[in-house]
Each structure stands twice: as C-alpha cells, then as structure tokens.
Design goal:
The complex is a heterotrimer of chains A (about 290), B (about 280) and C (about 300).
Chain A: H1 8-16, H2 19-44, H3 48-68, H4 72-90, H5 98-122, H6 132-137, H7 145-174, H8 176-181, H9 186-208, H10 213-217, H11 219-227, H12 231-256, H13 260-281
Helix pairs in contact in A: 2-7, 2-9, 2-11, 2-12, 3-4, 3-5, 3-9, 4-9, 7-9, 11-12, 11-13, 12-13
Chain B: E1 22-31, E2 34-44, E3 49-53, H1 60-67, E4 75-80, E5 83-84, E6 92-95, H2 109-118, H3 132-144, H4 160-172, E7 178-182, H5 190-207, E8 210-214, E9 227-232, E10 235-239, H6 241-244, H7 247-254, E11 259-262, E12 268-271
Parallel strand pairs in B: 3-8, 3-9, 6-7, 7-8
Antiparallel strand pairs in B: 1-2, 1-4, 4-5, 9-10, 11-12
Chain C: H1 13-22, H2 24-49, H3 53-73, H4 77-95, H5 103-124, H6 129-137, H7 145-174, H8 176-181, H9 186-208, H10 213-227, H11 231-255, H12 260-294
Helix pairs in contact in C: 2-7, 2-9, 2-10, 2-11, 3-4, 3-5, 3-6, 3-9, 3-10, 4-5, 4-9, 6-9, 7-9, 10-11, 10-12, 11-12
Classes of the chains: A mainly alpha (about 290), B alpha/beta (about 280), C mainly alpha (about 300).
Chain lengths: ~290, ~280, ~300
C-alpha cells in the first residue's frame, strides 16, 4: 500500500480515487450505522451471547452456501434469520438460559467445520467473494459489486423498521411487564428484533467477519452506553462511534496494509476500554452509588 | 394521614358514588387446569384505596391481572370505567411485581418514567417537536413521588426503594384514574415501606385516583387503606380492615380456625395455619 | 484436519479397532482425546452450574490469539496458548469483579484477542489459511508424543485440583453468598476455576480446536444436569458422555473423509436434543391430557 502524506485532505482524496475504497466506505458506513443502532438494544436486552451465537451461525451459513455452491449471501441470511426466530421463540426464557444457546452454538460451529472441510476440498469459491478466511475475518474490500445493492437495501430496510419500532422496543426491553399492560406487543417485538439482529449480524459478517462481528455490533453501542444515560442520545452516539471505527479502520488499513477487520475491531476495543477507564477514573457521567 | 378513612360503602363518595370505577361480577379464573378464583365479586369506587391481601399463591396477583385484562376469564365479567377490562388501557397505571433493574442498566430513571408516557407509541420522538408538555408531565410525576433528587442517576444504581418510587412515577405519569400495584412494598425495609405507602396514599387523595395494592403484610399500609379484599382459597372477603381482618371472617374464609391479635400499637398479627400478617414473612 | 486417505471400515469390530489403533498418530489422538474428555466433562459441569458458558467460549477464542502469537515469535503453540489463556482468565476475573455478569466486557476481551490473533497470523506468513483452520478447528493427526505428555500432566493437574477444590467450588457456585459467609474464599475459587479452564482449553485446542472445545465443555455437562439433579451422578454422566463423544467421533472421522470436530459436536448435540425432547414430551402429553380432561 502507499504511505500517507499526513495532509488529511490529500490523503483522503487519494484513497477515495479507488473504486473499491469508495464502495467500502459506502457499504461500511451503512453497515456500521445499522450495527450501532441495533447494538444498543442488544446491550439493553442482555443478548450479547445470543448475538455472538448468531455470528457463529453466520459463519456456518455462509461457508455452507459456499461449500454447496449456492449464493453464500442468501444462505447466510436464511440461516441466521431461521436461528434467530428459533431463539426468539424461546422468548423471555432465553435470558440466563445460556446452556441451551451454548449447546446449539457448539454444534453449529461443528457443522461449520464440516462445510469448511468440504469447501477446502473443492478448493474454489471464486467469484462469490467468499472464502473460509474472509468469512471468519471479513473482507470488506472484496465484496463484489453485485452484492452491494442487496446490502444497501437490507440496511435501509433495517433502519426503517427500527425507526418505527424503536420507542416501543425500548419500553419492551427495559420494562416488559409494564409495556405489555400498556398494549405494546412485547413478544412480537422480541421476535422482530431477533430478525433485525440476524440481518445485522449477516451484514457485519461481510465487513469484519463472523469472528469479529461483536466488535461492530456490540462494542460501539456499549461504549455509547457508558458515555450517556439518555436512550436516544446513546443510540445516535453508538451509530456515530461505529461509523467512526469503520471509516478510520478503513483508512488505517489502506495506509498500513493490515486487514481492515483488524483495524476496525481494534479501534472498537480501544474505544470501549477508554470509555470504561474514563468512567471509572474520571468520574464519568455520575458517581456510582453502589460501588 | 387521613383521620377518618372514608368508606364508600358507608358514606357517599364525593364523585359519582353510584358508578363504581371497577366492577367485578361472579369472576372465575382457571389457569393450567387449576381454579385460582371462584365466583368473586368486588367493586372499587373512585378515589378509594383498596388493599388486596392474602397468603402466597391465593390469587392476589391473579385478581389484579384479570382486572388489567391480562388473563382469560373462565366466567363472570369485569368492567373498568364502564368498559370490559382490556390490556393497553391508558387509564390504569400498573406497577408489576418487580425484580430489580440490574446494576448495569445505564439508563436514567427519568427515561424509565418517560417510557410510561410515550413508550407504547410507534416511531421516534422527533428532535424538532415540542416536548415541553411531556417533560413537565414527567417532572410532575417524579416530584409527586419525591424522586427528584435521584431521577437523573442510572436506574440500575438506585436502591430498591428509590427504584420503586420511580416505577410508581412511571405508572402515574399518564395521570391514570386507577393505580394497580403488585406487592410494591415487597423487599423494601420498614422505613421505605411506610414512605412508599404514604406517597401512594397522598397521590390517591390529591389526584382522586383509585388504588389497588397487592400486599402480603397489612401493617405498613394499615393507616392508609380504606378497604381490604382478603383473598384465600379462591374466595374473597371485602370490607373495612376492622370488619375483614377478624377471627370470624378469616376463619370462615380459610375454613380453619384463625386468630387475629391486635397489638397495643395497632399492629395486626394473624395466627393460624399461615404466618400472614406477622411482620416477618418468608416470601417465595 | 485433512485425512490423507480414507480407509473403509470392514464392519468387523475387532479388525476395525486394530486398524484404528494401528497408526501411531491415532493412538496419540485417542490418548489425548480421552484425557481431555475426562477433564472437560468435569470442568464443564461447573461451567454450566456457574453459568459461565460465555466466559468459556471467550477463553477458547483467546487461545487463538495465543497460538497465533506463538507462531509469530517462533515458540511452540502450547506456550502461547497457556500464556494467553491465563492472562485472559485474569482479565475476565478482574472485569467481573462486581460479581454481576458483564457479557459485554468479556466479549470485548475476546474480540480484541481474535483481532490480535488475526493480526499475528497476517504478520507471520502469507500462507496463513492452514494455520487458522488448524487452530480454530483442531488437527488430530498432528499430536506428537511430547504433546501427549503435556496433555497428560495438564489433565492430571486439573483432575487433582478439582478433587481438592470440588466441594467448596460446588458450594460457591450454587450459593456464593452463603458460601462466603461460611468462610469459603469465593473470589479465589472463581479465579482458580477460570485458570484451570484456560489450561484445559489450551491443551484441548489441538484435538477439537478453539471453536469446538466449547462442545466438549458445555454439552455433556448440560445433558448430565438434565438427567440427574445429584451432583455426583451428573458429574459422572458428563465425563462418560464426553468420553463417548470423543471416542466415537474420532473413530467415525477415521473411516470417513470429514473432520472429527464435526462428528463430536453433532453426536453431542443430537444426544442433547434427544434428552431434551424425551424430557419435554411426557410433560406436554400430561398437560394435553389435563387440558382434554378439563375441557
């Protein structure tokens, strides 16, 4: 790769001369906005483990598609949504019942190992933009143009649905019993949210890979939650942080030659650690009452 | 506290005393093949403070949930303000039997109260809209329960009593005609129990809201309540505390000898097959 | 993971067993697999009891960074696995100080570790795909005699430690407050447990890989707990099941072209699902009968 001149304007324009960089900035931007918004609810609903499991399902779904010669993006979306609905069907019982998720997760990974084996044995998969390593660790620079439209549409759809249900979802996440009495369809919203999460995880898999989905979906939102106690502000801040991690990560990757997903997730982890430290030592938002 | 708790049965209520705000007629509820409530009738009047008492598993919460329209009725009917009971009724403020917010819920108490006002509306609050009216309603409810000092702290970091006050504010923020509280004093210490009971009483007097409060210990709320509904074995005895919490009534209700003792400080102790009414109560 | 040649079974049990153990690497795989299964069954029981599935999963992922880092600086993989695992155990322990589960913090640790691991591999070699797959999904054919020795000592250490710590650990897992009041060092036990878990993950990586060790930890223990409420019985069941899954998985993998990790996890999950369904069905049938009777 090239070395930066440290003239920001010049560096950015030079980077954006490349088609693949422009595309990565656009897709990455969309993905990180969606991930930041969705992530806030994942943190609030204590569904980190469920999100992590979905990312393992995403790995198996994508590699399965590649192994069987079907469009991996399609199998990726279908399997994550199916599993998300299954987990959502467990509903409230999901919380704290991580054994059931864990067992399933272990098996899904085993299945992934099988597909990976078949896939490696066939030794191809070119043209789809998917390979074992890129599914595990993402390759946002290698997303074929044909899939860009799908990704953009799914992102826009997710954002639109989220805009409509955000407030009742917030209510149902924080206070399900009261929300149900006030006429909020708590269970239906829970299922819908799992589907949105599945879509987000699938897309994030393309960008940062199944193993690092957590970095994009959860950490920016968790960082935002450390920094503000106001729900809507936290939502916007989370999306902003995700976007910043993504774009900075792309730039860093471009100039250092390191994999983008390493840069993006490294930034997300650093941001989260900084927020934790800031809250603990600089007093943060509020002196905690019980610690 | 009110020197003479008024009883709508004896004296005409200031509002429309002829129309009860809640009317339960011959109600039976079956849950998973078990009769929880049988042939229960009960009326609640505007501005009244009714305590629903009884041992664990007697059907106190079931009665409350039926009135909220959350349960299917096996027979009988419930009307709330003249309409059949249904969920999503904005004129009822509900405080469910509560686990606490976990310590890592990093959201202000004020936002939790706010959700009581608009959490069931679709769409996002637009930043350019006028929120002054809503903001005032939220602040009014917070002031009413005396939670102003800590409403802007993360709810997960508040004590049980502070959380409970904010949750009552959440139920109050729509200015409901009926306030339904399921064991709101549970897991609070004695001082907080009395404080919260006093707040609820004050609200019912100032706003003219009817209060339905489920409790398993009558003593902390005894000075505040107008009438009690005592639930046992699927049946309910309704009346003034002095009439219902007696050896005769409770023995009839439980169908076993029960003795009610009154201490010199007014505390009520129920002696018999249950440990109901003693100040310590092992809660399951 | 790739078996050089697939050998068809003769379906004569004795002959097949002889075939299975004829090769040195299969004997090593069985030795290592047996040791790890015993330790995993025991440790998994406590993991499920302590609701630390997520921590277990994360420790396993951290192992990836350890192995990759060791490869980068030219150390044996086990050294990297041990170091990274113990550091991560300390990290998770410190983050969970408030005794409430902090999934996000744990997740941040393992995400950072995975990103580091990927970075190490990227820096170490361009031909990194095979390394990644071996670390993530295991490679049973590559277990040397030296590995077996290390695995044996580690598993012996784990079993011995559990023999000493087992009872207070059980107490602390079920009822930490009462245990602390009775003088059980709950916090130290939690740390000791996490370190033992990290050791186990480190040695298990070569057999089932970072991503699949989780199956050996959580699934047999979950089945054991489904089948018995008595700790001793559930523990024994967990160990027995882990052994069966590993032995069968290795054998089937030997005679087919597919990886052992897949068979081990599939066997485990199928058993878990069967147990859950068989315990659920009578309940449903009874509920249905009651409902019919009532209607």
């Amino acid at each position: 790769m090239s070395s930066p001149s440290f003239n920001i304007w010049q560096d950015v324009t030079r980077m954006l001369q490349y088609d693949f960089m422009r595309q990565a900035f656009m897709i990455g931007g969309m993905l990180s906005l969606v991930a930041g918004f969705i992530g806030y609810f994942v943190v609030l609903r204590h569904q980190a483990f469920a999100g992590e499991s979905l990312s393992d399902v995403a790995f198996t779904g994508a590699i399965g598609g590649a192994a069987l010669g079907i469009n991996p993006l399609l199998t990726l979306l279908v399997t994550t949504i199916a599993v998300a609905l299954g987990m959502g069907g467990l509903g409230e019982r999901l919380r704290g019942r991580d054994v059931a998720i864990g067992t399933m997760l272990a098996w899904v990974l085993g299945l992934g190992a099988l597909f990976l084996h078949i896939y490696s044995a066939r030794g191809s998969g070119s043209g789809t933009g998917f390979s074992g390593v890129s599914i595990l660790f993402g390759n946002i620079l290698g997303i074929p143009a044909a899939q860009t439209a799908t990704i953009v549409w799914v992102s826009v759809l997710t954002l639109a649905i989220l805009a409509v249900v955000a407030r009742p979802l917030l209510f149902a996440s924080l206070d399900p019993a009261v929300a149900a009495v006030r006429g909020v369809p708590v269970r239906a919203l829970g299922l819908l949210f799992m589907v949105l999460l599945a879509l987000t995880v699938s897309e994030a898999t393309l960008a940062v890979g199944a193993l690092l989905v957590f970095a994009l979906v959860l950490l920016p939102a968790a960082t935002a939650q450390q920094l503000t106690m106001r729900p809507y502000r936290a939502l916007l801040l989370g999306a902003g942080i995700a976007l910043a991690c993504m774009w900075l990560g792309l730039t860093l990757g471009f100039y250092s030659g390191l994999p983008t997903s390493v840069c993006v997730s490294g930034l997300a982890c650093l941001g989260y650690a900084a927020a934790l430290l800031w809250r603990r030592y600089a007093g943060g938002v509020v002196k905690s009452a019980s610690m | 506290m009110a020197t003479s708790p008024f009883s709508p049965d004896a004296t005409p209520a200031p509002e429309d005393a002829t129309a009860p705000i809640i009317s339960v007629r011959n109600l039976s509820v079956r849950l998973s093949g078990r009769d929880i409530l049988e042939d229960v009738s009960l009326q609640v009047w505007p501005g009244e403070f009714l305590a629903i008492l009884g041992p664990n598993g007697a059907g106190k919460s079931t009665l409350l949930k039926a009135i909220l329209g959350l349960l299917p009725l096996a027979s009988g009917e419930i009307t709330v303000m003249g309409q059949p009971a249904r969920r999503g009724n904005g004129s009822i403020g509900y405080v469910p039997q509560r686990r606490h917010f976990e310590a890592d819920v990093h959201v202000r108490g004020r936002d939790i109260v706010r959700l009581g006002l608009d959490g069931n509306r679709w769409g996002l609050p637009v930043p350019w809209g006028s929120h002054r009216h809503d903001d005032e309603a939220v602040q009014r409810a917070i002031t009413l329960v005396g939670a102003s000092a800590y409403a802007d702290r993360p709810i997960g970091r508040l004590s049980g009593g502070e959380q409970q006050r904010l949750l009552i504010a959440q139920a109050l923020v729509t200015q409901p005609r009926i306030l339904a509280l399921d064991e709101p004093l549970d897991s609070l210490d004695l001082k907080n129990q009395q404080g919260v009971a006093r707040v609820i009483r004050q609200i019912s007097q100032e706003n003219g809201a009817s209060v339905l409060l489920v409790a398993h210990d009558v003593n902390p709320i005894l000075p505040a309540i107008d009438r009690v509904a005592y639930v046992a074995r699927g049946h309910v005895a309704v009346g003034k505390p002095d009439e219902v919490i007696t050896s005769e009534t409770l023995s009839r209700l439980y169908a076993t000898p029960i003795e009610v003792l009154r201490a010199s400080d007014g505390q009520v102790v129920v002696v018999g097959q249950t440990d109901e009414g003693v100040s310590y109560h092992a809660h399951g | 993971m790739l078996m050089a040649d697939v050998i068809a079974p003769s379906w004569d049990l004795l002959a097949d067993l002889q075939l299975l153990f004829a090769l040195h690497f299969m004997r090593n795989a069985y030795l290592a697999g047996t040791l790890v299964a015993i330790a995993a069954g025991l440790m998994g029981y406590f993991m499920v009891l302590r609701a630390e599935s997520f921590a277990g999963h994360s420790l396993a992922n951290v192992g990836f960074a350890g192995a990759a880092g060791a490869a980068l600086v030219g150390l044996p993989a086990l050294a990297g696995l041990f170091t990274a695992g113990i550091l991560a155990a300390l990290g998770i322990h410190l983050l969970g100080r408030s005794r409430q589960r902090n999934d996000v913090a744990v997740g941040a640790v393992f995400t950072a570790a995975l990103a580091l691991g990927y970075l190490f591999i990227h820096l170490a070699t361009s031909e990194y795909a095979a390394n990644i797959y071996n670390t993530l999904f295991g490679n049973i054919v590559g277990i040397s005699d030296g590995d077996v020795t290390v695995i044996a000592w580690t598993c012996l250490l784990i079993v011995a430690a559990l023999a000493v710590l087992g009872r207070p650990l059980l107490f602390a897992s079920l009822d930490p407050d009462v245990a602390a009041a009775r003088g059980v060092p709950v916090r130290w036990l939690a740390l000791a447990y996490l370190i033992l878990l990290a050791l186990l993950v480190a040695v298990a990586v070569q057999i089932v890989g970072v991503l699949l060790i989780f199956a050996l930890l959580v699934t047999p223990a979950a089945i054991g707990q489904q089948l018995s409420a008595r700790p001793a019985v559930a523990l024994a069941l967990a160990v027995a099941l882990a052994l069966i899954f590993v032995w069968l998985g290795l054998a089937v993998a030997y005679f087919t072209p597919y990886p052992a990790g897949f068979y081990i996890t599939t066997l485990a999950f199928a058993t878990y699902a069967a147990v859950r369904v068989s315990r659920l069905l009578p309940q449903r049938i009874r509920a249905l009968a009651a409902w019919r009777g009532a209607a």
